[in-house]
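WP5 quarterly update. Target: Restriction endonuclease type IV Mrr domain-containing protein. Source organism: Pseudarthrobacter enclensis. Length: 334 aa.
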Amino acid sequence: MGSGDVDFRFLETRFGGPAGARDAFERLVADIVGIVHPDVQEVQANPGDWGIDAYVGDLGQDGEVHIWQSKYFIHGFGKTQQGDVRDSYNAARKAAQENGYKIASWTLCVPCELDGPMLTWWEGWKKRTSKAHDLTVSLQTAGRLRRRLQAPAAAGVRNLYFSPIFTLPQARPDLEEPRGLEELADDSKYDGALFVLQMDEAGLPETFAAREAFFNAEILEREITDKGIQPEISALSTWRVRVSSTWSTAFNTACQISTDRRLPQLYSEVLERIETSHAQEAASLRAHVLHGVGLLHQAVDNGRAGWVRDWRDIAKNHRAATSNRTSDPNNGEG
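Structure tokens (predicted):
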């Protein structure tokens, strides 16, 4: 996986999930700074890091420092992130006041881009902060960091974080053929299914691709269950857990960014992560990553995920309605 391209989402694959990616991003920023400033120093949180991830300068009495603060905002920048930025800056300023050194510059580094309203907020906050505290405040977004990593001098750092970490098995004629995908002939199949209802609630009107992915996941599950090969059963179970984790991480982030019932871009974000980051799980079952998308829709259909903030209520009401139809002795008569 990975081709050396600078895509910060790859850090979660490379370093074992969001927590590992967050730590890696902090190291990555320090390494980028180190290209120009070999004396850059990182600060261990023990228990606090003085609001500093990396710095150049002197933390001693009457010293002066240039600070780089890393924030792993991989899914975007909103009002919650504004608060995190202010808290980090205030922590750095408090530590400087308590320990007698001066902050000459403070640079925020994030692996995302800011939209128009957030850029407007940033420019205003930067000007107010710079003027009030007599320092330089700047921002390094995903694009700026990427361009720094594309420079010839950064080749070593770029390869350290974005080089391939594993290869997919090559096809061999003496092994079974990869599992393909089957077309869904009946576009009304799964009418009334919970995973379709959850999409409707989220304002996602086109559901045929989801039905087809669900259909193929059902085929995959049935085939593996019927064969009873324990490594494949275990691999499928592992993939289900990974799919669930992918959805959960994206859902929590979406809830932080938006307070609306509907969570913009959640659906596309989760599908994109599965399609770009689950190749290893697919290869372990000779499957396609779209089987993983089907496993996601299975999880939704089983009442374990959803696409709106109140997805649990949707699932509960659906179960109740289904139960009532099943228990009604006149169901289907007349």
